[in-house]
Amino acid sequence: MTAMELGHQYLDGAYRIGTGGVFDRVNPATGLVAESLDYASLQDVDAAVKAAAAAFPAWSRLTPGERSEHLLKFAVELTAHADHLAAVETAQTGKTVRMSHEFDIPGSIDNVNFFAGAARQLQGLAAGDYAGNSTSMTRREPIGVIGSIAPWNYPLQMAVWKILPAIAAGNTIVLKPSELTPGTSLLFAQIATAAGIPNGVINVVVGSGREVGEALVRHPLVKMSSFTGSTVVGRRIMEMASETGKRVHLELGGKAPLVVFADADLEAAAHGAVAGSTINAGQDCTAATRAYVHSSLFEAFTARVAELMEAMVVGDPLDQDTDMGSLISETHRGKVSSMVQRARDSGARILAGGYAPELPGAFYRPTLITGAAQDSEIVQEEVFGPVLVALPFDTEDEAISLANDSPFGLAASAWTKDVNLVMRAAAEIEAGCVWINEHIPMVSEMPHGGFKSSGFGKDMSSYSFEEYTNIKHVMISHDTAVHRSWQDTVFRQR
Ligand code: NAD
């Protein structure tokens, strides 16, 4: 019996059996039931929050150096478990094991290492004598118990992006991973305990969003709700948090444009578009979804993208030669395939893919669509599958305005060799990240977060500490007089 078989909740440094019922989890690449998960009950959520609250005083009082030392040991321990984590990540998502091994797990470990260093760089403003007769300084303090909710697309990375800045700053956390993909988050918490992170600092509750997620957001001891997921659920979180005026951090959906200007390197742009739209089977909030291509390159670009997509190997995620594994579920594939069908029905052309291959799991071919209208569903709404829509443009103004014509603003890319145009595009595109001649790579040192309906607040980098800390002004008087001169405004010394 593996440790996780003892239960699918992780509270106060140990696995526990959830008392909220038992639910089957399906392996999306085979369509077969993979395991039975026990879900948390409301009492289990309460116990997890109380464990985090009990751990907070001691953890928050550690020096930054002491917390950093814990995180460095944690990163070493995670590295020793990298193969196991990658195998579990693939088994629960259907993504290729190549992707889990080379992208998800190393990216997660790098984030732990980054925050081990950043923990020692938590700064406030230097002290200053702003009122002449007093000294002001700021203290940056942890908030308390953070309730975090994560999606299924990059289960471990999304969990790590929530957990690390929170605990590096001295908070404790209860994480609710997606009920479709709890495995690596549970292992992560267990490895943290093995590495010496004190019990209760990282807790994981598993269950549905409606029950377990909402209970976590509403819990009075949870001081902040940090969420990554869809825009519709993000709005619901905000609504619930408003009942108590709780702080929220929302990383939501995306519909990233990829703008190919007339002078772009066509081959590089086509490769960038294929990798950018099919990474993680397109289930990536920053994936390239709308390619706006200068009309002089449009035919050549779409032909090359279609050719590269058609050559991609879709199938068994455990095969090292596979380029794209399955989508997360049969239901999700149904949503992707209906959106493509509606685009087709409204007159769009499918230049590549547009169908599910004859395989038992939730697979879908990389798909390129042209001839869709800018205001159509396939151009405006998040598909969250391997689907790229290409539209032509003629002028720079038109390209920028098409790119910005979206409720989302998470990420974008511009492809050009013109340095002046690079600077204009970087300034004018409304997105939390603008890549130039690139699409997808991220680094732990740089912030990630959206504009517009893609949310607010930052994951990764030292900017994330702004979400997970309170800034306190401390003012120390130098004045020895009993009655201070400014008090005359209120009452005069008689
Ligand atoms: P989702 O919103 O359906 O679910 C996300 C999480 O919220 C899950 O754990 C789910 O159980 C929980 N949840 C659902 N309803 C809830 C409720 N009422 N109260 C509390 N919790 C609830 O999203 P998903 O389908 O898991 O993930 C895909 C979405 O995530 C896409 O829209 C994608 O763009 C977005 N995403 C955004 C980022 C980013 O950094 N901006 C990163 C990854 C994914």
Structure write-up:
This protein is α/β, with parallel strands linked by helices. The chain folds into two domains: 3-252 and 454-474, 3-Layer(aba) Sandwich (Aldehyde Dehydrogenase, Chain A, domain 1), CATH 3.40.605.10; 256-436, Aldehyde Dehydrogenase, Chain A, domain 2 (3-Layer(aba) Sandwich), CATH 3.40.309. The protein contains 15 helices and 21 strands. It has helices spanning 42-61, 64-80, 82-93, 97-118, 155-168, 183-194, 209-218, 231-242, 266-278, 298-310, 330-345, 377-380, 396-404, 419-428, 465-468, and strands at 9-11, 14-16, 22-27, 32-38, 134-142, 145-149, 172-176, 202-204, 222-228, 247-251, 256-260, 288-294, 349-352, 367-370, 387-393, 408-409, 411-415, 433-436, 451-452, 455-456, 469-477. It has a seven-stranded mixed beta sheet, with helices on both faces. Strands 8-7-6-9-10-20 form a six-stranded mixed beta sheet, with helices on both faces. The protein has a two-stranded antiparallel ribbon with strand order 1-2. It starts with 8 loop residues before the first strand and ends in a 17-residue tail after the last strand. It binds nicotinamide-adenine-dinucleotide (NAD). Nicotinamide-adenine-dinucleotide is lined by residues 149-153, 158, 176, 178-179, 208-210, 213-214, 217, 228-230, 233, 236-237, 251-254, 285, 382, 384, 410, 450, 454-455. Residues 22-474 form the Aldehyde dehydrogenase domain.
